[in-house]
Amino acid sequence: MSEIYDVIVIGAGAAGMTAALYSARSNLKVLLLEQGAPGGQMNNIAEIENYPGFASIMGAELSLKMHKPLTKFGVENAYGTVKQVKNQQKYKIVITEDMIYTTKTIVIATGAVYKRLNISGETEYAGKGISYCAICDGAFFRNKELIVIGGGDSAVEEAIFLTRFASQVTIIHRRSALRAQKIIQDRAFANAKIKFLWNTIVEKIQGNERSVTQVRIKNKQNNADTISCKGVFIYIGLNPFSKPFLNLEITDKNGWIKTDANMKTNIPGIFAIGDVRKKTLRQITTAVGEGSIAGQQVYLYLQEIEN
User: Model-level pTM?
Assistant: First the structure.
């Protein structure tokens, strides 16, 4: 039989790295499986101001700080995209595009991905002015007029970040009030480079062969208009990255993985944490808390089945 792990953590965001750390500190054999750079969505955040111990820290820097101690405690790292998980009697099987892993337990920490508008022009201008990551692409839009679609924390925070580069940022929101935290709203309202369009949706993104040039909008009174811009940043919510686990029947109808307070799914030995989990608050702090609970629960579960 191939090498058997005590636990495979799928996803190396804040939740996954914490679960791997706590599991390894319990002297378990841990594999941390990730399809990209450690840190997940943290790598897309310019400044983090609500993580205890840091007045302000770059998302990529915090990712590195979280990942660095894992090697010390013996966590193995592997890269690959999980295609399927099989729950067998004694072991669980994790299948990637080119590897098959065997483990006693699994912690799912795959996170979520940004929702798309699914409107005309969104696919055509992907990479030509449309973005879902301000920190990744903001610098390409120096002295340009930009649009941010959405009204939550991510949308408003990224709009504020984009004012470092853009000449103007217009936040387009389908409601009459933002959903972001008040402190973030206050910063946006006080920023001279940000203006707002309320009760408005974007119907179409238009451009030339090279880039976005404008968007077509409509408000609740069905009044249509076009706005010139060079970039469109979309932040309208998240979809769970749970497709590889749908066969396990551990999700709700929208794909969010259901757990109890101890991060247990309805399959013994399979846990879920972080943004992929069905919950109300998705923050780095909650991800870390869930990761620590899962790491401890993995240890307790193995103690129970092996003793």
Answer: 0.82
